[in-house]
Amino acid sequence: MNLTVAEEGKEYIIKQIETDDEELDAFLFSLGCYSGEPITVISHLKGGCVVSIKDGRYNIDNELAEAIIV
Q1: pLDDT score recorded for residue 41
Q2: 11 pLDDT exceeds 90?
Q3: pLDDT category, 70, cuts 50, 70, 90?
Q4: Sequence spans of domains, the chain
Q5: The pLDDT of residue 24 is above 90
Q6: What is the DSSP letter of 2?
Q7: CB of 32 within 8 A of CB of 54?
């Protein structure tokens, strides 16, 4: 399951990042988004969602949300 269909307010563990783009991989890693890390979907928006990773909140678009498998 990816983040676009994840339940709001529920904590998930990231299983993997599915992307062929190395820059996207590096960007997500810099946010603290990698396998084994907990992630929470705060809310779903029209073009993406707001997530909580570690102590930060980030607004990510649907492309990124689909790449994060929980």
Answers
A1: 94
A2: yes
A3: very high
A4: 3-69
A5: no
A6: B
A7: yes
Closest alpha carbon to 14 in 31, 23, 22 = 31
Q: Which two tokens stand for residue 47?
A: 């073009």
C-alpha 28: how far from its chain's center?
8
> Could you give the 3-state DSSP secondary structure of residue 38?
strand
Q: Which helix (H) or strand (E) holds 20?
A: none
Fold of 3-69: SH3 type barrels. (2.30.30)
What pLDDT score does 31 carry?
86
Residue 55 tokens, joined: 């102590």
pLDDT score of 27 more than 90:
no
Query: Buried b vs exposed e over 47-59: b needs ≥16 C-beta within 10 Å?
Result: ebbebebeeeebe
